[in-house]
Amino acid sequence: MATKLAPSPISAFHVIPPIFRALKITKAPGLVPGIHPRTNTSIFGEYLSGFRPIFKAKGTEQTSGLVGDETLAQNKTELYQSLEGINRGIFGIPSAKKSEIEGLVKQLEYQNPTPDPTLNLDKVAGCWKLVYSTISVLGSKRTKLGLRDFISLDDFIQIIDVAKGKAVNVIKFSARGLNLLNGKLSIEASFKIASKSRVDISYDNSRITPDQLMNLFRKNYDLLLGIFNPEGWLEITYVDDTLRIGRDDKGNIFILERSEEISP
Prior knowledge:
By secondary structure, the chain is α+β, with helices and mostly antiparallel strands.
């Protein structure tokens, strides 16, 4: 039987666009980049001095839409290549790799084909799988949750129901030594449109199933929920038919790809 516990207000893991956090966008379009010492502004939003947007401003001559499409496809390919072998970044990555990924994310954000995502929620609806997040579980947190040797993190899934204004983040686990026990943490949240690119997210409830897995996490349940709870706001900075990028109110980046999985 699923167990429901009310969380204490702890910083959230916006998987919801983190997962769901991925639904929130930053200025440079989940689902807001960090503070930079010097920025310039273009029709594509703010960008670092010395970093040039991919496209020319309106009114300037462009070669063809095909060139832009090819550049976008190439940037997506490079981003996926940079994400190989890092396990979604959940247990930390070198700072150079983190900077590389953020640079590729910014290039895609400047090319966002859906600049007003909350006005095109059909692009956001459905099931998504987290492929990268700047949220990480390190040190004593990882040890307390048994994520070093005993419990493994599997898929992070987010299901967004636009009609109901609901999102469900599902974090799957497998526990070694218990006949490979499989289970999941499900976090349900509501969202409301705050702007053309941002949504406000509020926590509804959570549960861990089966009970055996809940018993493993019971002592540190608040810690677990504090990491993955999506509450806050999320800016959707990029979304197309297969990829979504978001930034949350804590400055985290979330990258998700569309998934065929439909059940939470």
